[in-house]
Amino acid sequence: MKLLVTGGAGFIGSEFVRMTLRTHPEDEVVVLDKLTYAGNRANLAPVESDARFRFVQGDIADRDLVNDLAGTVDVIVNFAAESHVDRSLESPGQFIQTDVHGVYVLLEAARSSRHARFLQVSTDEVYGDVTTGRSVETDLLSPRSPYSASKAGGELLIWSYRTSYGFPAIITRGSNTYGQYQFPEKIIPLFITNAIDDRPLPIYGNGQAVRDYLFVEDHCSGIDTALRKGSPGENYNVGIGTEINGITVADTILRLLGKPDALKEHVRDRLGHDQRYAIDTAKLRGLGWEPSVTFEEGMKRTVDWYVANEEWWRPLKSRDFWEFYERNYRPQDEPVSKG
What we know:
Layout: E1 2-6, H1 11-23, E2 28-33, E3 53-57, H2 63-70, E4 75-78, H3 85-90, H4 92-112, E5 117-123, H5 146-165, E6 169-174, E7 177-178, H6 187-196, E8 201-204, E9 210-211, E10 214-215, H7 216-229, E11 235-238, E12 244-245, H8 246-257, E13 264-267, H9 282-285, H10 295-308, H11 310-313, H12 319-328
Parallel strand pairs: 1-2, 1-4, 2-3, 4-5, 5-6, 6-11, 7-10, 8-13
Antiparallel strand pairs: 9-12
């Protein structure tokens, strides 16, 4: 395959690029990335010298650029997205621009180039708060944050292109992902890097919100399975099936680093905080995919990576990072501002 991987300098996208070039020696990869705060060219350093790799800096909403690149590849895999719930609560318009309009530009380019398939990397958050059972791919979408709504909006566009044009699109919905190269504002790298520096670990509310934490390598192998073995027009959940809350995440990190429990700090809960995500992954497993990394193993590997790679993450915790941090992690008794 010749792949255009959009958002390929981000956390999950860069892992997919590295994995593709490592495991599919006949493939070629073009990465298109805007290099916003969460996109990092350093994430692609291991493949920069590979003759099968090319990097282009640009926006998926740039129609001329996207059309040019789409004409040189067989497949588009779209990781490009604004993806942090907290940031979506502050600036929802940016999410609509990238996660909905950007998807439209990519769809038009892929349709014009008559690609054999298009893969959209989405999220289990489009299902909304799951109080009982597990979400399956045919469930109603019920997003509850601007982020998940923008991802659902992109999916709905794809669905319309499937019906209207017979467009060969596949959608994957991944659970909360963690691992090496993740920008340190997300819960696991934030807790790890704060604990390394003996800073508090800010736990939203009572810390009981449940997530299915998926190691990044397993997530990318799931996307690869859906791309190569899945059927166009289908959606596939990607997850492990575990239910882990914020307290457990904090306790695991503190134990692995040998840090005291006193570093845990409960802060004001997130607006509209979904309390549980849970997905059924039988459909993807039916294609032969299985996750291979347990939460305990993945957390140890992730902690060890951040300990060994301070030169990667320390520059990212800049003044802008800490200003965002102070706006979002407030004392529990502080009144909530909705303005």
